Amino acid sequence: MYDVYAVREDFPVLKEVVYLDSTATTQTPIPAVEAMVEYFYRYAGNHGRGAHRLAREATNRYEDARETIARFLNAEPSKTVLTKNTTEGINLIANSYPWESGDHIVTTVLEHHSNLLPWLRLQKKGVKVTIVSPDSKGKVDVSSIEKAFTEKTRLIAINHISNVFGSVQDVKNITKLAHRYGIKVLVDGAQSAGHMPVSLKDLNCDFFATAGHKGLLGPQGTGVLYIKEPDVLDSALVGGGAVSDVDGYTYVLEPSPACFEAGTPNIPGVIGLGRSVEYVEKIGVPEIEAHEIKLSREAAKRLSELEHVEVYGPEDRVGIVPFNVKGLHAHDVALILDQTRKICVRSGHHCAIPTIRFLDVDSTVRASFALYNTEEEVDILVNAVEGLKALVS
User: Fold this and answer.
1) What residues contact 30, with CB distance under 8 A and at least 6 apart?
2) A GO term (biological process) for this protein (predicted)?
3) CA distance 80 to 391
4) Which letter does DSSP use for residue 255 in this model?
5) CATH number of the domain that 256 lies in?
6) Is residue 356, in this structure, part of any structural domain at all?
7) What angle do CA 164, 166, 172 make, to 5 degrees?
8) Fewer beta carbons within 10 angstroms: which end of the chain, N or C?
9) Beta strands of the chain (E only): which ranges?
10) What pLDDT is stored for residue 393 in this prediction?
11) Rounded to an integer, what distance in angstroms lies between the CA atom of residue 221 and that of residue 83?
């Protein structure tokens, strides 16, 4: 197991707060920040648009980052598209797939709005959507997915880990099932990449979207979209960098991934993301996963023992602990924790209103753990929440 206290030295803000909101965004380590600063100070040129030394250096570093990210996810660089976030990646699929009226999509109640709204919007084009419910702990049964299939089902869109429950979905077996019916699968990996081992060749899903600023520890404005068969899609955006020839009336797009990356990308962000992925690799994802599971399950167990607290999610949760304090609104709980103990937690519907309504509450407090959190921080959280009993008794 790695030395969590040594790791914390690379995240200066952790000296100021108890940061338990890594499901929303993780902190970025010093080496990744330094890599971005180096870009601005030493070789700030555009990507793929020049023969001079700065442009060459920027392009080489950007593509090196792509190779690092692809290796980390066990994917081919040519199928690894760099986006600005998970949302953009999912929308790219929704806007690029050759849908026909009557086509059918299966998704779940557990989805983040980013993996729900793009599919609901397709209803305007005649695409039908079925939303499958999980069990009370946030697990989707594979058989319930199969029961939703029709002859026109073209896609299953499902999260790998619920950002509300912290429950892990069986996406590997869901993918095997879907492929037997000729159905493609999109996995929202925003909460899995970097938090648990992910091999895209092993999962064998058709699309996998994730963010740079969550488990990969990268900066905001970066993301990754894996496309197993790029030729099945049209490019959602066209423009500079995506085209190989234009005759004034027609154009020819570059092969993947360039055809999906029109315009100047977030060059320093991607370079920083590549460095943060190397940082995660060096520590080891299995070690990070074990550490986060230990902390989150201990926090969930201890919080559930408080009579004025209700905890949601499965016993085999990963690093996410949603809860409510009876008699207090989630936002009030979050503000009190912040103002009295400098504890940063998320409150609200977590961009997943259907999931919150499924729980039959109007919001939850969410504590989420990352590689840099400690057992002492679990103590601080539990003791602070225990102290809220005086406000509700």
Assistant:
1) 10, 11, 12
2) cysteine metabolic process
3) 50
4) P
5) 3.40.640.10
6) yes
7) 115
8) C
9) 18-19, 80-83, 104-108, 128-132, 153-159, 184-188, 207-211, 223-227, 243-246, 251-253, 309-311, 320-325, 343-344, 346-348, 364-368
10) 65
11) 8
Residues in the chain: 393
User: Does one domain contain both 90 and 36?
Assistant: yes
218, 250, 282 — which closes off a domain?
Answer: 282
177 in a domain, yes or no? Answer: yes
Contact 385, 347 (CB under 8 A): no
Tokens for 213, please give them.
């600023």
Tokens 């057992």 correspond to what residue? 375
Structure tokens at 311: 């905890």
Residue 226 to residue 231: CA distance in whole angstroms: 13
Residue 293, both tokens: 């599971």
Q: Which residues are bridge partners to 223 per DSSP?
A: 83, 211
Give phi and psi for 215, each to the nearest 5: -65, -20
Does 238 share its domain with 387?
no
Active site (catalytic) residues: 351
Q: Which amino acid is at 222?
A: T
State the helix-helix crossing angle for 375-387 and 285-304, rounded to 10 degrees.
20
Instruction: Give the count of domains, the chain.
Output: 2
Q: Could you report the per-residue pLDDT of 42-82, keeping only the tens digit for each?
A: 999 999 888 999 999 999 999 999 999 999 999 999 999 99
pLDDT per position as a tens digit, 78-102: 999 999 999 999 999 999 999 999 9
User: Of 215, 250, 282, at which residue does a domain stop?
Assistant: 282
**Could you tell me if residue 14 is inside a domain?**
no
Domain containing 228 equals: 31-282
Kind of pairing, strands 207-211 and 18-19?
Answer: unpaired
Looking at the fold, whether 210 and 314 belong to one and the same domain comes out as no
Asked whether residue 301 falls in the same domain as residue 272, the answer is no
- Mean predicted confidence (pLDDT) in 244-265: 93
pTM: 0.97
Let me know whether 270 and 295 are in one domain: no
Do both 227 and 164 map to the same domain?
A: yes
Can you say how many angstroms the Cα of residue 27 is from the centroid of all Cα atoms in its chain? 14
- The helix (run of H) or strand (run of E) holding residue 338 is helix 330-341
What separation in angstroms does the CA of 191 have from each of 82, 117, 182, 369? 17, 18, 27, 11
